[in-house]
Design a protein that fits this description.
With about 700 residues, the protein is of the alpha+beta class. Helix content is about 15%, strand content about 30%. Bound molecules: beta-L-fucopyranose.
């Protein structure tokens, strides 16, 4: 009888162990995300809007002495912003309710420095109301940027300002429905108007704002809001304004060592820490143009599809959310150029992730935690199910077997972050014949990691976790073959006349012509050896797998290889080095000119001038005189004139004149837009 009892007991114990094995999930590894943070990370891609007084004062950081009368958009339409962002695939929008200059886009009852005293809608308008309603209509979440620094307010730097700041916060978080993110910028203190004091005010960034109590207010009014700052607590700045996070990016942060605006943040903390104490995921912010605010002179500088795609893969693909900024223009609209580019990105993302090759594959793992956390959870399209191993098993592999050989170049991985970010090191192998070949050696995964790999043919892919804080938990494993990005190739030429054609992606072929005809796949293949020192027209296409790009066309004149600049400043050469990203300017506006010895007699028909292309503009030449000479002593005025719209459109300026023979040229600055010495990125001649 006892025997039977023991057997029944043993049987029940076994049954219990088996059952518990099936249902007991791994325990979470601290720090863990909150529900609100999980929802926020799932949003992945959001839009930022910088639109405020700076849009009208043409500044990036207004001083604070601007007048409400300056704010007057002619055709503001927040529904256009929401439509574009929705179509682009974004999930939420954050707007600069108040930037450092202190002007408020809503009719705050605590200041006169707001839309209520502007001509826009006779002072009856409220941009936040318009946008929050548009967001609702388009199914987007809504967030606000409220600058802690206020260069307009008389009390900035004193305790009274904190009350003002919180009063404003209360208005924003009470009157516009649900707010998903509250953005507190790290730029704090400096010179400003401050109610007419016009002085420098420094604050103790660590203590002045008493952030803990401000956060309390936010959570009291909007319990699910994510608070952004360098130190979180909801999400953190990624440490640069390029939109790039890091191949190793941790969501945990040593939060208590960080405060907003600390100088060493970018280098020391922005990538998160393996031993971080709080869950504060990274948010990568970047503008679609060089500036955060609209400047007509950047209409030609909207980021290209290759730049935007790079940002996408280096932010969302590296365990952070992406916040892409649109500088809304003076009309109150997202500019046409910006819309075109962001929609190109949307189309490319769709194309890259169109067909998940892992969906019909068979998964197997070196270890599975009971039967609940089995291998095929990683390909079931459900992020709430995941593969996990037994607690004691950290080094484990999971393989995906395709029925036939496939070709792929992207892998998407996701950890089940509800249980913490665990993986510290992993590798990916592809099966070639009977061997496994390592194709990637990486560190973190986190919420999402996207690997861009070479086109690889295989019948099976294996992920091996080599180091983790605890047993791995992986919810998603996707495999794609992203088509090559086929944009018109970028053509440039150096001083010596050597043409460079950039391949947008490895494996893409470039075909070109020099006789003016349209290139086809039967034209010459570019291999890096085209010399055009005497000029010519080059047309090129990119090709991959029988698909071709649009044609790129560039016309070059005589290159500057034999020229000398007159003068001994070593920077002068930057004006003729063939690189539009380098530039020079003279030290003063006195005798502000650039003279060049062409070292041969040429029949000149005109000249070209490109001002600096740097983000911070200076010395755009608006009035010039152009001289020629045969001996460098006697100069003849070939042309004088204006670069009419250079302030707004600093692109290559081309000037033609009646042909004249010359060995020397001189471009003399008569006037620049800002009164600074002229900036010369490139000067060229026209002979053809
Ligand atoms: C920075 C600000 O100073 C910029 O003007 C911009 O708002 C950017 C998003 O954050 O720190």
């Amino acid at each position: 009888m006892d025997q039977i009892k023991i057997s029944i007991f043993a049987f029940l114990l076994l049954l219990f162990q088996n059952c518990s094995d099936k249902v007991v999930p791994p325990i979470g590894i601290d720090p863990l995300p909150s529900e609100a943070q999980l929802n926020y990370q799932k949003m992945e891609y959001n839009g930022f809007i910088h639109f405020n007084m700076n849009t009208f004062s043409n500044m990036e950081w207004g001083y604070g002495d601007e007048k409400p009368s300056q704010f007057n958009p002619s055709a503001l339409d927040a529904r256009q912003w929401a439509r574009i962002m929705k179509d682009a695939g974004m999930k939420g929008i954050i707007i600069t309710a108040k930037h450092h200059d202190g002007f408020c886009l809503w009719p705050s009852q605590f200041t006169e420095h707001s839309v209520k005293n502007s001509p826009w809608q006779q002072g009856k308008g409220d941009v936040l109301k318009d946008l929050s309603e548009a967001c609702k209509e388009y199914g987007l979440k809504f967030g606000v940027y409220l600058s802690p620094w206020d260069r307009n307010h008389a009390d900035y730097g004193k305790p009274e300002y904190i009350t003002y700041f919180r009063n404003q916060l209360r208005e924003l978080l009470t009157n516009y429905g649900e707010i998903f993110e509250v953005w507190f910028d790290g730029a704090n203190g400096g010179d400003g108007y401050y109610g007419g004091s016009n002085e420098i005010r420094k604050v103790d960034k660590l203590n002045y704002y008493d952030w803990e109590n401000t956060y309390k207010l936010v959570y009291e009014l909007q319990p699910n809001a994510i608070i952004f700052s360098d130190a979180g607590p909801g999400c953190r700045w990624i440490g640069n304004e390029n939109g790039f996070s890091y191949p190793t990016t941790w969501s945990p942060l040593l939060k208590d060592s960080v405060y907003g605006g600390m100088p060493e943040y970018g280098e020391k903390y922005s990538m998160g820490q393996e031993n971080g104490t709080h869950w504060v995921p990274g948010e990568a912010d970047v503008s679609i143009r060089p500036g955060w605010y609209y400047h007509e002179y950047e209409d030609h500088k909207v980021k290209s599809i290759s730049e935007l795609l790079e940002i996408y893969y280096r932010s969302i693909g590296q365990n952070s959310t992406l916040l892409l900024n649109f500088p809304v223009d003076k009309r109150g609209l997202i500019h046409e150029n910006d819309e075109v580019q962001v929609m190109k990105l949307a189309a490319k993302i769709k194309e890259d992730f169109a067909n998940n090759l892992a969906l019909s594959a068979i998964c197997s793992a070196s270890n599975e935690r009971g039967t609940t956390f089995h291998a095929s959870n990683i390909t079931d399209g459900n992020n709430e199910t995941y593969w996990a191993t037994d607690d004691s098993i950290i080094n484990a592999s999971i393989a995906i077997d395709f029925k036939n050989e496939i070709v792929f170049n992207r892998i998407v991985l996701q950890e089940y972050i509800r249980l913490g970010q665990r993986i510290q090191k992993f590798k990916i192998e592809a099966k070639r014949g009977d061997n496994w070949e390592t194709i990637a050696d990486e560190t973190t995964i986190g919420y999402k990691r996207i690997l861009r790999l070479k086109d690889t043919k295989t019948s099976s892919i294996r992920l091996t976790v080599e180091k983790a804080k605890a047993c791995p938990t992986i919810s998603n494993f996707e495999v794609f073959l992203a088509p090559k990005l086929l944009i018109p190739p970028l053509i440039s030429r150096d001083r010596k006349g050597l043409v460079n054609i950039m391949m947008p992606e490895e494996g893409v072929k470039i075909f070109y012509t020099l006789d003016g005809s349209v290139p086809t796949t039967l034209s010459e293949v570019y291999s890096g050896e085209i010399l055009l020192p005497r000029g010519g027209t080059i047309k090129a296409i990119a090709e991959y797998d029988d698909r071709v790009s649009e044609v790129a066309e560039v016309r070059f004149d005589i290159s500057s290889g034999n020229w000398n600049i007159i003068g001994d400043d070593e920077n002068l050469i930057k004006a003729i080095d063939g690189n539009p990203d380098t530039w020079m300017s003279n030290k003063t506006t006195e005798n502000d000119e650039l003279a060049i010895n062409l070292n041969e007699k040429l029949n000149l028909k005109g000249f070209t001038y490109l001002p600096t292309q740097q983000r911070y503009v200076t010395g755009f030449i608006s009035q010039y005189e152009f001289y020629t000479s045969m001996d460098g002593k006697k100069w003849y005025l070939a042309k004088k004139g204006e670069f009419g719209n250079i302030e707004n459109s600093p692109i290559l300026q081309t000037v033609n004149f009646d042909p004249i023979e010359a060995k020397f040229i001189k471009l003399k600055v008569i006037k620049t837009v800002d009164g600074n010495p002229g900036s010369f990125a490139e000067v060229g001649i026209i002979t053809i």
